[in-house]
């Protein structure tokens, strides 16, 4: 197993010319200002994400994970630093991005197919042109038999599958996922972890995935970004070199356990248990 101490861009390690990062976060700071004391939510975040990477962000409550996600999604202005997708500064929600939140935000009065097609309507696109893709995605997630059902008729796991399909409808290059499986029972969460990995291997989208679970982060991630709080910052970045596809049973191997232990140890050393 090989660990890199930090997120060193490849360009810094030699003379070879490399393209700029797909998603570039450089010395990013976010300070929330209100009548009360300003809150330094993110301090000097440096992270270069390559196209096709699956990056998991893990850290304790309040370390700024959701703030970072909202900044990347263009929903929150940054206070200083650089934040760019494919070389273009993010100042508003980019078109080429899909977002999945912990709460599925499905529209209760629309059936499943129509919930997925909302993504096309939102961008003023013809829904008929996207219907085949919506059906295909729902099929990929095992929901072909539920197209005309309503969200209230589905389990939590099925609902979250629908929101992933909606986020993927327009084939975005970047998928942001903020604790998407946090509210699910452990069995459903396992299933969705396996499905998500399968889909990612098939599509090679760039994914930024936030979780509280170290196990989930190691299972899914190509790299795990560890965040600490007070103010929110990157504590370490751990490349996960476990071969893919990873079956769920990989979590019982010594290699997997060593990654989990290393991440837990680092958190413990910085006072986060
Ligand atoms: N809109 C806001 N206005 C002011 N402060 C905020 C706002 N949103 C978040 N914060 C503060 O910024 C810090 C980081 O919050 P954030 O929600 O990003 O953390 P988090 O790691 O996602 O937490 P959790 O895991 O509990 O969701 C916290 O101190 C929080 O109180």
Automatic annotation (TrEMBL):
It comes from the Bacteria. The keyword Lyase does not apply. Residues 26-254 form the ABC transporter domain. The keyword Nucleotidyltransferase does not apply. Keywords: ATP-binding, Cell membrane, Membrane, Nucleotide-binding, Transport. InterPro entries: AAA+_ATPase (IPR003593), ABC_transporter-like_ATP-bd (IPR003439), ABC_transporter-like_CS (IPR017871), ABC_transporter_ATP-bind (IPR050166), P-loop_NTPase (IPR027417). GO terms for molecular function: ATP binding. Pfam families: ABC_tran. SUPFAM superfamilies: P-loop containing nucleoside triphosphate hydrolases (SSF52540). Belongs to the ABC transporter superfamily. This is ABC transporter ATP-binding protein. It comes from Variovorax defluvii.
């Amino acid at each position: 197993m090989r660990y890199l101490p930090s997120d060193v861009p490849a360009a810094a390690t030699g003379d070879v010319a490399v393209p700029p990062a797909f998603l570039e976060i450089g010395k990013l700071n976010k300070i929330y200002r209100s009548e009360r004391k300003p809150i330094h939510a993110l301090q000097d975040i440096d992270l270069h994400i390559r196209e096709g990477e699956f990056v998991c962000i893990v850290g304790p409550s309040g370390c700024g994970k959701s703030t970072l996600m909202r900044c990347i999604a263009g929903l929150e202005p940054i206070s200083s630093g650089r934040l760019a997708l494919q070389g273009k500064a993010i100042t508003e929600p980019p078109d080429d991005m899909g977002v999945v939140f912990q709460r599925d935000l499905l529209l209760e009065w629309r059936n499943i197919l129509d919930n997925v097609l909302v993504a096309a309507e939102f961008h003023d696109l013809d829904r008929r042109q996207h219907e085949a893709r919506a059906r295909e995605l729902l099929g990929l997630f095992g929901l072909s038999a539920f197209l005309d059902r309503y969200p209230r008729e589905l389990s939590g796991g099925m609902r979250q599958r629908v929101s992933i399909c909606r986020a993927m409808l327009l084939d975005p290059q970047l998928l942001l996922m903020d604790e998407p499986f946090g509210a699910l029972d452990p069995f459903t969460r396992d299933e969705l972890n396996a499905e998500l990995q399968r889909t990612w291997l098939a599509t090679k989208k760039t994914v930024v995935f936030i979780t509280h679970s170290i196990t989930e982060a190691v299972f899914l991630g190509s790299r795990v970004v560890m965040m600490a709080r007070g103010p929110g910052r990157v504590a370490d970045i751990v490349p996960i070199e476990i071969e893919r596809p990873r079956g769920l049973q990989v979590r019982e191997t010594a290699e997997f356990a060593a990654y989990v232990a290393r991440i837990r140890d680092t958190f413990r050393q910085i006072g986060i248990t």
